[in-house]
Design a protein that fits this description.
Helix content: 40-55%
Largest sheet: 10 strands, mixed
Number of helices: 10
Structural class: alpha/beta
Radius of gyration: 26 Å
Length: about 280
């Protein structure tokens, strides 16, 4: 009889337990269903990625009114450092992660290239790789030496910490100490303004940013590189030789708000923004 009482108590206990578990699961589901994204995301880093991330952030905020997305520039190196130290929720880098950065997580949101730019009125239509090297190392210092006008060349270089500089140096097999620059600039917009304001200047910037500026009337032009036109179309078809991914970077596998934003930034929902900024969308 005692044995039957014990079994009955266990049965009742299990029933109550299952009931509580079921209730808990229901509450959890209900909470998940009603749980809205909220909080603030800080993104820092690449000046190439920043305008794109800012526009994506605005669209994300419009879908999640309790979320704020704060985007700050400073170069890819800052983005990597800030993501690693936790100063930023998400870093921005306009390049692939280096071997020593493989402890971080990278999520590509678009592709871009780096192109040489001249003032629109400069008659030079193309430069060989060797001519670019000679200009940047000071062996050629007058446009007349490369079929241009008799005018000194203003060499515009990027500041340290910019991935555009690193990729430019890597492609042309140069060291930054080899460069004989007239002007050192920070972000792409600075480079474009410098060249647009000086008919004798040469620089190199994000192709997407340059195309966006050209389409908005800024007096610059992109030169072909190694005979291939610098265009988003050639980045898309893989023929342009100096292309790169635009990445969002986190210290660990993202969760919660960070995960939601990165998923959104990699989704087709933002392809219109990516194309509007003349970058190449990436399908996840």
């Amino acid at each position: 009889m005692t044995k039957f009482k014990t079994l009955a108590l266990i049965t009742v206990g299990l029933t109550i337990g299952f009931g509580l578990q079921s209730c808990t699961q229901s509450n959890k589901t209900a909470n998940q269903a009603t749980n809205k994204l909220q909080g603030k995301l800080v993104l820092t880093g690449s000046s190439t990625v920043a305008p794109l991330a800012a526009e994506i952030g605005k669209k994300f905020e419009s879908e999640h009114p309790d979320v704020r997305v704060d985007v700050q520039t400073g170069g890819s190196s800052r983005g990597i450092a800030d993501a690693r130290t936790g100063v930023a929720n998400i870093g921005m880098a306009s390049r692939s992660l280096k071997a020593e950065e493989k402890d971080l997580k990278a999520f590509a949101i678009a592709r871009d290239g780096i192109g040489m730019i001249l003032h629109k009125e400069n008659p030079v239509k193309s430069l060989s790789n060797q001519q670019v090297i000679d200009i940047y190392t000071g062996k050629v210092n007058n446009w007349q030496q490369v079929s241009g006008k008799n005018a000194p060349i203003t060499v515009v270089n990027k500041a340290e910490g910019r991935s555009t500089l690193e990729l430019f140096l890597s492609y042309f097999k140069l060291k930054n100490s080899d460069i004989k620059s007239s002007v050192v600039i920070g972000d792409n917009q600075q480079g474009i303004k410098t060249v647009a304001g000086n008919p004798n200047a040469i620089g190199y910037v994000s192709i997407g940013t340059a195309e966006f500026s050209i389409n908005n009337g800024v007096p610059i032009k992109l030169l072909p590189l190694n005979g291939v036109a610098a265009s988003t179309e050639n980045i898309k078809n893989g023929t342009f030789p100096l292309a790169r991914p635009l990445n969002l970077v986190t210290k660990t596998q993202p969760q919660g708000l960070e995960r939601a934003f990165i998923d959104f930034a990699q989704s087709p929902q933002v392809h219109d923004i990516v194309k509007k900024q003349d970058f190449v969308p990436i399908s996840k």
